[in-house]
Each structure stands twice: as structure tokens, then as C-alpha cells.
Amino acid sequence: MSEAIRTVTSTILLAVLGIMCLSGLLLTRLNILRKLGDASQLVAIALLILQLVKAKNARGISVRTQELRLTVFMTRYLDLFTSYFGPYNTIMKLVLISATMYIIILIKYTEPYKTLYNPSQDSFPHWKFAVLPCVVLSFFVHMIGSKLDGFSFIEWAWTFSIMLESVAIIPQLVVLRKYRLVENLTGKFVFFLGVYRVFYALNWIYQVNTHMFVRHRPLMYICGFIQTALYLDFFYQYCRISRLTRHCKGDPTTDDNEDDEEMDGLLFESEREMVNTGFTAQSLLSNTDHSLSLRNEPSASADAQQRRQSTQEDQ
């Protein structure tokens, strides 16, 4: 995929996400909780695409979380082939699937993203410890609720998607823990996904208490609680370290001429760890960029070593 095609595709997707966000807020008859939930999810995806376009690398982004989210959408929205719930719902489902698929293709199969993508950081075994347990557990849960004669593949797929979505963010949280530097747009992506989940949980409660035909679903409450707890932990860490990173940005030992965009992130570690290791946002970025340059330009490393040896001989 050429840079021109990538730029045009990203621009079109961002425009579609913006239009869907405004349409959901202004033109639909959905309740305010559902509107804000949909808008938050669209904003999260738009921020992630912006991060990829801006940085031209997938640093700190988990493609495995995106694969889990795509699996969630593909199984939850099987009713696209059997039912029609209006233009907004149909387009919304197609946009979520298309945008998530585009992010995966961009990171895994497009330069320079696939070269700079670091699988060792994005190492959570998601198929083994997320998808497989959810497949087995959702089957038993659905069988208990519907019995064998009432088994429905679409209903089972919906149950599976609810379970899988509750843990889909785990690979991304693992990447942030390993990488330690949270790019601001990536952090906001996770933040808005958490906001989306909070609004949807409130929407479930609202629907159950205002619509007689909507029944309580304990599975949704349990999975919603697990997912919300994961996001709340991230919110706590993200807000706590923002103060520490602002201190790093004001470190007088850093070069004032450095581009501010290189500091556009938060260190995902505790204050004690920062003091003990001596890490700052600037040093972490410098080390990361240096390691990437060594990976892509091995000859430059050899030249630098020769220069250091020559300098030592002169001294």
C-alpha cells in the first residue's frame, strides 16, 4: 500500500467516523447514553488511526487487541445477514468492522509499520488465553440457558462476543506495561474505549428499568464489570503518571531544542521506578529510536564504533 493510498484511505475513514459520530448524536432517536457510548467508541478508533498516521509507526499499539476487537465485531454482528435495524445501526456495524480491519492491515502488512512493529512487546497469547476460553465458556453458558433443542448459532456468537470483549483490551494493557511510554493518542484511545464501556453499562441499566421487553442478563453485568474494572485500573495509572511525566517534560537536563512532539506521551511506571531506573520520557524515546536505527542500519552502528575507537586512540 503506497503512502498516497494510505493517506487517502485514512482520511476517508476519519471523515466517515466523524460523520457517524455527528449523525448518532444529532439525527438518531437513541437515548443519550447510547449516543454517547457510540460516539466514544468512534472517537477512540479515530484517535488510533490519527496516532498511526502521525507517528508512522505502531509503537505502543497492540495489534492483538485489534484482532480480538475484530473477532468481537464479526461474531456480534452476524445479524447483518439476517435482520435489518435501520440505516444507522447497519452502517455503524460496517464502519466498526472496516476501521478495525484497516488498522490491522496497516500494522501487519504495510510499511513502515510492519517493520517497526515489535511482536516481543505485543506477546499476550490472545488466541490461547482469550478466544479459546471464551469459546468454551460461552458454549456452556448458552447451552444452560437455551438447552440443546433451543441452540442458536447467532445467539451463541453474541454470547461469545460479550465475553471476548470484556478481555479484549488485555493485550493493549500488556503492551503499555512493557513499552512503558504511553503515546498521548494511544492513551486517549484506551480512555475513550473505557468511556464507551461505562456509557453502555449505564445504558443496559436504563433499558432494563424503562423497557418491559428488556430482561436482565447476568452475563452482561458480569462481563461489563470485568471490562470496566480493567479500564478503571488503566484510568488510575494514566492519571497518576501524568503528573510524573509533566515533571519529566520540565527536566532541565533535556534539550530545549527537541521537538515537543517527541515528548507527546506518558511514562507508564511508578515514581519510585522512575527514580531508581533514572528513566525520563526523553531518554526512553531516545533509547527506542536508537534501537530502531540499529535494527534498520547495522552499518551505522559499525561506523559509530570505529569513530569511538579512533577518539579513544587520539586521547
Automatic annotation (TrEMBL):
Which biological process annotations from GO are given for this protein?
protein retention in ER lumen; protein transport; vesicle-mediated transport
Chief localisation class: endoplasmic reticulum
Disordered: annotated segments: 291-315
GO function term, MF aspect, one: ER retention sequence binding
Record bears the keyword Membrane? yes
What membrane topology is annotated for this entry? Multi-pass membrane protein
Q: What's in the GO CC field?
A: endoplasmic reticulum membrane
Task: Please state the span of the N-terminal signal peptide per the UniProt entry.
Answer: none
Top-level taxon of origin: Eukaryota
Pfam families reported for this sequence:
ER_lumen_recept
Location comes to: Endoplasmic reticulum membrane
Q: Which UniProt keywords apply?
A: Endoplasmic reticulum, ER-Golgi transport, Membrane, Protein transport, Receptor, Transmembrane, Transmembrane helix, Transport
> Which chain regions cross the lipid bilayer?
12-33, 91-107, 127-144, 156-176, 188-206, 218-236
Question: Polar residues composition bias: which ranges?
Answer: 291-309
Task: Give the record's family classification.
Answer: Belongs to the ERD2 family.
Query: What name does this protein carry?
Result: ER lumen protein retaining receptor
Q: Give the organism, scientific name.
A: Nitzschia inconspicua
